[in-house]
Design goal:
It is a single chain. This protein is of the alpha/beta class and 251 residues long. The protein has 12 helices and 8 strands. It has one domain: Alpha-Beta Barrel (TIM Barrel). An 8-stranded parallel beta barrel has the order 1-2-3-4-5-6-7-8, surrounded by 5 helices. Helix 1 runs parallel beside helix 2. The mean pLDDT is 97. It binds 1,3-dihydroxyacetonephosphate. The site of 1,3-dihydroxyacetonephosphate (13P) has 14 residues, from strand 8.
């Protein structure tokens, strides 16, 4: 069955003390609640060990923000899927638009990262989404289709069952300009349609498709009310425990 998920992508924010305070408050508060979704926290990699300890003692799942496309070896500065898996990390974001833009990650490299995660029984949270100029030119569906085909559609059915898709229109990330519920639903339904064509309706119906981009405590419930929006990948608003918990309670 399709899972609702709210994931907090902390990006490159917080000192160790701030990170630990934030995750401990979130874990404590959620302990008393009857949740309608899985909650994932994605801290910077240097805090993953600390976060995984909180994950073990709470209902939180922990995700990395990035993973190497290589297996272990002479790759200075990289963190491998096997290292993450051994630390109890169950997910990793792959292909965030900031990685595509600032670190020139290509579709082919992202497909490698997805494969490494699956090698170690981890789940990719695979990000796709168009630039503003691509939407204005009417190319947004083509862009999203191409990102899915190149990054994910090499997987077989069993592999694809482990994937979470995150639609993050780049023009909505960190801008305060959120997609309308209609825009989000239209694209999520398009994405589910592509998955149906490739893998069949059962797998498509079971795939979690998250929305990301200026999602906050005020707009989350209208976004999540759409039938193909299964939760959110939250940036800025996940850095504040109260806001993040309000979003989690938006189902
Ligand atoms: P904001 O919620 O800050 O717009 O960021 C969204 C995002 O990029 C999550 O990965």
């Amino acid at each position: 069955m399709r899972k609702n998920i709210v994931a907090g992508n902390w990006k490159m924010n917080n000192t160790f003390q701030e990170a630990e305070e934030l995750i401990s408050v979130i874990a404590d508060e959620l302990d008393e609640k009857d949740l309608q979704c899985e909650v994932i926290v994605c801290p910077p990699s240097i805090y993953l060990e600390m976060a995984s300890d909180y994950g073990e003692e709470s209902i939180l799942s922990i995700a990395a923000q990035n993973v190497s496309g290589y297996d272990n070896g002479a790759y200075t500065g990289e963190v491998s899927a096997s290292m993450l898996e051994a630390m109890g990390i169950s997910y990793s974001i792959v292909g965030h638009s900031e990685r595509r833009k600032y670190f020139n990650e290509t579709d082919a490299q992202l497909a490698e990262k997805v494969d490494r995660l699956l090698d170690y029984n981890m789940k990719p949270i695979f990000c796709i989404g168009e630039l503003l100029e691509e939407r204005e030119a009417g190319n947004h569906f083509n862009i999203v289709e191409s990102q899915l085909e190149k990054g994910l559609f090499h997987l077989n059915k069993d592999e694809f069952l482990n994937v979470v898709v995150a639609y993050e229109p780049v023009w909505a990330i960190g801008t305060g300009v959120v997609a309308t519920p209609e825009q989000a639903q239209e694209m999520h339904s398009f994405i589910r349609g592509l998955i149906t064509k490739k893998y069949g309706v059962d797998i498509a119906e079971d795939t979690t498709i998250l929305y990301g981009g200026s999602c906050n405590a005020s707009n989350a419930s209208t976004l999540f009310a759409n039938k193909d929006v299964d939760g959110g990948l939250i940036g800025g608003a996940s850095l504040n425990a109260d806001d993040f918990i309000k979003i989690i309670e938006s189902f």
